[in-house]
Structure formats: structure tokens, C-alpha cells
Write a structure and sequence with these properties.
With 297 residues, this protein is mostly helical. Helices cover 74% and strands 2% of the residues. The chain is built from 13 helices and two strands, in the order αββαααααααααααα. A two-stranded antiparallel ribbon has the order 1-2. Helix 12 runs antiparallel to helix 13. The two termini are 38 Å apart.
């Protein structure tokens, strides 16, 4: 048997070192902070799992804030997925398959993705203002009481529209790539059988897009559940705490109150929730994909 040459692994060693420096070491620092308390002057005192107990206790001040913010996060992510995934599929299906229209469509779809998050928040902050913003001025002119600074519903509509405008393009591009990967033979067979557009979508296009849809759902859930910059720039977490998500509350605790122990414990639980929900999403969607394959075979 020919022996393997494992020296190639040394080429990967710099990558592992960079990952250790940029991810593992900061994570261990957060873990260290989560079991300690500080009263300033860079002096820390052992607190054990005290912050985690308080965080998971709905009756405590920290636990109540965490549960309320987590509820807002799940509602926001659910609405985002319910809007962006079907909309992204519909736009991808409507895009041209050949000609100059393909290049124009791809460039236009890529533009929102190239804009930095803080700039997106600033754009929609101005766009929604009733005095100088086009959307705010138009809605006010139609007699609609729209003010994202003082109205809870207006604030939620604004940040949802902002996220849909910013990130639906990602779903469209992923779905479009999945559609382009389908061989023409499938469509030719469907035309010979006289299949309708809906039948083609249900039996050919949607199953072939399963993998890219898994990626799209996971990416959009993670990003929407961790959203911070855009709502912070537009609403600052208000009115009141209506748009205060976990990320915004985490920054308030860490930088505003300088409670590093509470913030570290919250960030670890926050990360664990994201990983758990992503695992559930991935497991369910791959289960359905495998079930469809067994039915087809």
C-alpha cells in the first residue's frame, strides 16, 4: 500500500492558527468573563454560573429583558423568512435565462448587497422621514399616520421593508443559480408531457432548488436573528423597547452599563440559540429532501 504524504497538512496550519487567534481566543475570553463579575478598575471576582441562572430566570430583570428581546428576534426572523424566501423564488423564476437581460438583472440584484449595513440604516432613516424622505412624505401626504420614531407598527414595518430590500437579492441569486443548474432535458420532457407551469415548478424546479434553499434559509435566519446595525441606526431600539433585539440589548449591557459578566453570559446563550435553531432547520429540511428522494426512487 502506498503511504500517504501528510506534509500537505502543514499548508493548512496557518489557517488553523488564524482561526484560533480570531475566533477561539476571543470565545475563551467571553467564557472567562461570563463566570466573573467586576466593579471597575479591571478587578474581577468569581461568580460561577450566577449570571446564567439570572439570565434564564424570567422573574429576574436580566431574564425578563432577555426573554422579551428573544421573542422580538424570533418574530422578526419568522417574518423575514416568510417574506424573503417566497419573494426570492418568485423573482428568480421571473428572471431571464439568456441575453443581456441576465447581466443587467444580476448587476441590479447585487447592488443592495454591496451597501454597508450602517449605510443601509442611514438610507432608510432618511427615506422614512416625513419631512425629507420620499416614503415618509408620500405616506403622510396620503393621510397615513406614519412615524417610525414614535409608532411601534411603523417602526416594525420600516425595519422589515429595509431588510427585505437589502437581503432578498441574496435569496434570488441563490435560487437563480439552482434554476440554472437544472438540465434542459427536464423541461423538454415536461413540455412533451404537457405539464403546466405549476407542475414544472412543483415537480422539477422546487426539488432541484432544495439545497440552495437550505443555504438561503440558514443564512437569512442567522443574519436576521443577529441583526444589529440597521435597526439601531433607524430606531435605536425604540420606540421604547419595541425594536430592541438581543444584539442591541447585549451592546447596552456591555458598553452602556459595563456589565461584562452579564453581557458575556448573554452572548454565549445567544450563540447557542442560533446554533441550535440552525441545526433544527438543517435537520428538518434535509429530512424532507431525503424523503422526496426515496419517493422518487
Amino acid at each position: 500500500m502506498k503511504p500517504y504524504n501528510n506534509r500537505a497538512w502543514f499548508l493548512v496550519l496557518p489557517v488553523f492558527l488564524i482561526v484560533a487567534f480570531s475566533a477561539i481566543l476571543p470565545l475563551m475570553t467571553v467564557v472567562n468573563y461570563s463566570v466573573q463579575d467586576t466593579f471597575g478598575n479591571n478587578e474581577f471576582f468569581w461568580n460561577g454560573i450566577g449570571w446564567f441562572k439570572e439570565l434564564l430566570d424570567p422573574k429576574s430583570e436580566l431574564g425578563g429583558r432577555f426573554i422579551d428581546a428573544m421573542g422580538r428576534n424570533f418574530i422578526f426572523s419568522f417574518l423575514i423568512l416568510a417574506i424573503e424566501i417566497p419573494l426570492g423564488i418568485a423573482v428568480a423564476l421571473a428572471m431571464p435565462r439568456q441575453g443581456i437581460g441576465v447581466s443587467i438583472s444580476l448587476v441590479l440584484l447585487a447592488l443592495p448587497l454591496l451597501i454597508p449595513w450602517n449605510v443601509v440604516g442611514t438610507i432608510w432613516q432618511v427615506f422614512g422621514r416625513a419631512d425629507i424622505g420620499l416614503m415618509g412624505w408620500a405616506l403622510t401626504g396620503m393621510g397615513i399616520d406614519y412615524n417610525y420614531v414614535s409608532g411601534v407598527l411603523a417602526a416594525w414595518i420600516t425595519i422589515i421593508m429595509m431588510d427585505v430590500w437589502h437581503w432578498t437579492s441574496l435569496v434570488v441569486l441563490l435560487c437563480y443559480a439552482g434554476l440554472r443548474a437544472i438540465p434542459d432535458a427536464y423541461y423538454q420532457a415536461a413540455r412533451i408531457d404537457g405539464a403546466s407551469r405549476w407542475a414544472i415548478f412543483r415537480a422539477i424546479q422546487l426539488p432541484k432548488m432544495n439545497r440552495v434553499l437550505v443555504i438561503a434559509v440558514l443564512l437569512r435566519f442567522m443574519d436576521s436573528f443577529m441583526i444589529y446595525t440597521e435597526p439601531f441606526v433607524v430606531t435605536g431600539g425604540g420606540p421604547g423597547n419595541a425594536t430592541t433585539f438581543i444584539s442591541i440589548d447585549l451592546v447596552k449591557i456591555a458598553l452602556g452599563q459595563f456589565d461584562l459578566g452579564k453581557a458575556a453570559a448573554l452572548s454565549l446563550v445567544y450563540n447557542l440559540i442560533i446554533l441550535t435553531v440552525c441545526w433544527v432547520f438543517y435537520t428538518i429540511m434535509t429530512h424532507f429532501e431525503n424523503a422526496e428522494r426515496r419517493m422518487q426512487s
